[in-house]
TrEMBL record:
Coiled coil: none annotated. Residues 47-225 form the ABC-2 type transporter transmembrane domain. It is found in: Membrane. It comes from the Bacteria. PANTHER family: ABC TRANSPORTER PERMEASE, ABC TRANSPORTER PERMEASE PROTEIN NOSY-RELATED. This is ABC-2 type transport system permease protein. The chain crosses the membrane at residues 21-39, 51-71, 92-116, 122-146, 153-174, 207-229. Keywords: Membrane, Transmembrane, Transmembrane helix. It is a multi-pass membrane protein. InterPro entries: ABC2_TM.
């Protein structure tokens, strides 16, 4: 079966209409923007603070909106029909993730403007954010596939919002609790490390380990998502 852009865009348009009708889910778009506007007016200049807002946007927009869109399909009993439609697995997953991807990039871009954040190397930071966005969309898809309603999706996403938005603060306690050093390998921590290294003039070639770790998170979550998706197809 050939990849069809027409089918992909049809899924995108349907998700866009569903999102605009759900004010509760749409409201989450405002949270990182409001925080960015408040911190920007205060003139706070901190990479950690900037990326707390960006990581929150990744959780609340990329992961949560994606999770809610999938959960809403299940709640309305339309996901099964979509799986059995002529659309391929790739068209469905890419189409379902496209709205979350575009919205996330827009929210992070506007948040960066409000914060007055301009990285030393926009290309490297953008690559890190794009790669991270793919991970969070895969996470949201997996969570959406295991939930039964939008309300349930709102509950299941909360631990991940805490871990991936504020999990970097756990490294402060690493001396007392060595196991917490694992927080340094979370994708949100790696994104902050990339941003800090960029500000020190580090080039892309020296950042391969950070990108590699985020890439492993993407591959792992994509595999988990595919396993859950294929299981739902035969349930």
């Amino acid at each position: 079966m050939t990849f069809s852009m027409k089918r992909l865009l049809a899924i995108f348009n349907k998700d866009y209409k569903d999102l605009t009708r759900n004010l509760y889910v749409s409201f989450t778009l405002l949270v990182p923007l409001v925080l960015a506007a408040v911190f920007g007016r205060q003139g706070i200049d901190s990479i950690d603070l900037y990326y707390m807002v960006f990581n929150m946007a990744l959780c609340l927009v990329a992961a949560y909106i994606q999770c809610s869109l999938i959960a809403e399909e299940k709640e309305k009993n339309t996901l099964r029909g979509l799986m059995l439609s002529p659309a391929s697995t790739m068209e469905i997953l890419v189409g379902k993730g496209l709205l979350s991807f575009v919205t996330t990039i827009l929210v992070i871009g506007i948040s960066a403007y409000f914060l007055g954040y301009m990285p030393e190397n926009l290309l490297i930071v953008s690559l890190g954010i794009i790669l991270s966005t793919v991970f969070y969309i895969a996470l949201g898809t997996a969570l959406g596939l295991v939930t039964r309603s939008v309300m349930e999706a709102s509950v299941i996403i909360m631990p991940f919002v805490f871990i991936f938005s504020f999990g970097t603060s756990l490294s402060v306690l690493a001396e007392k609790y060595p196991i917490l050093q694992a927080a340094d390998y979370l994708p949100n921590s790696q994104l902050i490390m990339i941003a800090k290294e960029v500000e020190m003039g580090t080039g892309l070639a020296e950042l391969w380990s950070h990108f590699g770790i985020i890439g492993l998170w993407v591959i792992g979550m994509a595999l988990i998502t595919m396993v859950i998706y294929r299981k739902r197809m035969v349930d």
